[in-house]
Amino acid sequence: MHPLPKIPKEEIESRLGRFQDFLQQAGIDGALITQNIDLYYLTGTMQNGVLFVPSSGEPCLYVKKSVERAKFEASVAVEEMGRFKELGEKLKARFRNGKRLGIEMDVLPYGLAMRYLRFFPEAEPVDISFSLRQQRAVKSSYEIEQLKEAAKMVHQVIESLPKMIRPGVSELELAANIEYQLRKMGNYGLYRMRAYNQELVLGMVASGAAAATPTYFDGPAGGLGLSTAHPQGASRKILAVGEPILVDISSVWEGYIVDQTRLVVIGDLEKDLEQAYQVARQILKEVEQMGKPGVAWQDLYLRACEMVKEEGLEKHFMGYCADQARFLGHGVGLELDELPVLAKGFDQPLEEGMVIAIEPKFTFPQRGVVGIENTYLVTKNGLEAITFASEEIIRLDL
Amino acid sequence: MHPLPKIPKEEIESRLGRFQDFLQQAGIDGALITQNIDLYYLTGTMQNGVLFVPSSGEPCLYVKKSVERAKFEASVAVEEMGRFKELGEKLKARFRNGKRLGIEMDVLPYGLAMRYLRFFPEAEPVDISFSLRQQRAVKSSYEIEQLKEAAKMVHQVIESLPKMIRPGVSELELAANIEYQLRKMGNYGLYRMRAYNQELVLGMVASGAAAATPTYFDGPAGGLGLSTAHPQGASRKILAVGEPILVDISSVWEGYIVDQTRLVVIGDLEKDLEQAYQVARQILKEVEQMGKPGVAWQDLYLRACEMVKEEGLEKHFMGYCADQARFLGHGVGLELDELPVLAKGFDQPLEEGMVIAIEPKFTFPQRGVVGIENTYLVTKNGLEAITFASEEIIRLDL
To answer: Is A218 a residue whose pLDDT tops 90?
Structure first.
């Protein structure tokens, strides 16, 4: 039907196998998967449909549109969804007399959930999102390959920043040029996020006071943005000499997202901002050494907080005062906000195959944001950077 | 705090007033608004928070991040959200002994809805989404101004298509160039959609067989896309002589989206495709005449279906056979998939101030998609096009 590469069949079988293992261990009789990313991860296609995964036996994807494309792309059985009531009959037959039904409570809209749950009046709905996200956090070699391709794309952009940045260029023009370069390489142009109401265009390409403008975005850098309707990231502000220019950007290859930040300055940074940047680098070096299978997610964040305190930079870490984000890093993959979350309260262990963007940053109101970010793979020997640009500040002559 | 234009205070007051009128008429004691677009529409800010709107009295926006920015931008009272439990106490106090609580059932995730509803164990949840979307469908003069700005942006792109299109250029390169041009004008780069699992990058810039590849997207044109993880819109296919090149693109200004489609061909189209394009134009002319306040939304679709039948093009209309979309047009505004929907079953009347993208299209498997789209304002005298490019096929020399 079409020439696009498909996710290998064995990959899908292995993912489904692991998910069914989880269902069995958790005493969940079957799960109804509805969100496009979860569907893609478990079937190999992102067509409009719902996937029923029994705790044992064959899963089935019920598709509304396009059945033809889903049949071609998916590595699971595909059936036409038909009318909603018919779907209900089919699902009930599959669930048999199951007692506990898994659903994605963090993304499935309430109204749609209620319609599905009416098919199973005897069943207890159970949230499977966190567990599926935990499974997705551990990447296969196929997934790591795609992430490494994405990292090459973002690296090319970092390399060409000196050609794009000069006084008089606006944040918007810089963002436009970065997006253009990425897009021609095959970047999707949309960075999927799972959290309700979160969205991202490219990342945070922002400078000086504009970068320090607080936002709703659940991350360390904010950004003035283009309007109150687009209140984050690049604005129309003109890049100026001596201010921190934060280039926090992502790229996407075959659905997989990599995240990286570098800092640029035209001329020289003020001393305290330069020092804060060096603290961010030290934090990165420190947690690079700590990050090994078995270490708790929160330990990296807590260690960073200690180092920040020693430097007296608590007010500035990951946003300013009331607008601080309370984490040090996040998993990346098919979504930008994957597990693990490096934050207090998460005592789960790092596992081999997890991929994490770690991004220590400091915000100085009216002056800017400084910091650095790499994406890392957790290997049995520790963290291995997937992004590979120089970690020095990119200094441009006046 | 920042120099971005704000939505006029009177505009927000009028929106809230209309929404409270609806709550009173529907016997709903208060509504909890959570989705970023609805929040922006009713408050003027898109910060992370929830808005409580009582059926009468002062609404209050409870903000998590950024309180400072929300206070600056919003035209309603803003309070710090605090911990989730504290939010519950505040909301309960506001709701008093209300019986019916409005929530956005089409977008609010199930898990979050359950957490909110636990604050109101006695209350009956009621879906307010459709009514709020009906209100939002009728645009104010402020909103129409923003939409007209967006239309100017997309018009500039249409004008420069002849410079961007030639044999050997890929769909991806063409999309990249269009996005780059729009972005430099201040385009946001993200086209918000309300429907679960729907997303869009730019639109459908697609040619020949690739354009006719069916997708999950709830629209007439599909597109091969870049991968099974990005299965719609522009692909790496090279533009060729004699095939239809569909340029279905959107632009965003101050959050407001306009949608337009034009058809390009290098050399000549085959006769039946050319004829189908002319039928699409005739449908557009016909519904342009019909579209007046008081006419049912579905009437425009049903009339189009009649005309399609007369031409024997039923199999090709709005997608091919099983993969047809069953509508002729959709409202646009802060979201791309607003009301009204021009589709069977919607007997609600058109109203002055509604803004609708009407997009008759025909899909020919292996050969391409032809069609046209304008965005219209419903005035008391009928439809007035907001998009204003020539409706002829854009014919380029070999």
So the answer is: no
Q: What is the CATH number of the domain that holds B209?
A: 3.90.230.10
State the CB neighbour count (10 A cutoff) for residue B141: 8
Tokens of A378: 């957790």
Of A99, A115, A44, A96, the residue nearest A74 (C-alpha): A44
**Chain B residues with beta carbon closer than 8 angstroms to that of A228:** 4-7, 40, 44-46, 73, 254-255
Residue range of the domain that includes B299? 138-396
Residue that finishes a domain, picked among A136, A160, A190: A136
Cα–Cα dist B136/B33, whole Å: 14
H/E stretch holding A285 reads helix A271-290
Beta bridge partners, B60, equal B52, B77
Tens digit of each residue's pLDDT (9 = 90 or more) over A339-363: 999 999 999 999 999 999 999 999 9
Domain of residue B27, CATH code: 3.40.350.10
In chain A, which residue's Cα lies nearest the Cα of B1? A213
Judgement on whether residues A352 and A384 belong to the same structural domain of the protein: yes
Q: Is B2 part of any domain?
A: no
Residues A284-321: pLDDT tens digits? 999 999 999 999 999 999 999 999 999 999 999 999 99
Q: Taking 90 as the threshold, does the pLDDT of residue A215 lie above it? A: yes
Query: Is A1 inside any structural domain?
Result: no
State residue B222's pLDDT score. 84
CA angle B331, B323, B236 (to 5 degrees): 85
Contacts of B213 in chain A (CB under 8 A): 1-2, 69
Task: Count the domains in chain B.
Answer: 2
A149 neighbourhood in chain B, CB within 8 Å = none
Nearest-Cα distance to chain B for A354, in Å, is 20
For residues B117 and B204, state if they share a domain: no
The 10s digit of each residue's pLDDT in A64-117 is 999 999 999 999 999 999 999 999 999 999 998 899 999 999 999 999 999 999
State whether A342 and A231 are in the same domain.
yes
Contact B196 A103 (CB under 8 A): no
Sign of CA dihedral A293, A298, A301, A306: negative
pLDDT at A15: 98
CB A352 within 8 A of CB A293: yes
CB within 8 Å: B199 and A186:
no
Pairwise CA distance, residues A163 & A177, whole Å:
10
Residue A320 CB coordination number (10 Å): 21
Best of B62, B183, B192, B202 to mutate (most A CBs within 10 Å, chain A): B183
Q: Average of pLDDT values for A374-384? A: 98
Contact list in B for residue A36 (CB cut-off 8 A) is 197, 199, 216
Q: Please give the average per-residue pLDDT across B341-360, as a whole number.
A: 98
Residue from A227, A323, A324 whose CB has the most chain B CBs within 10 Å, to mutate: A227
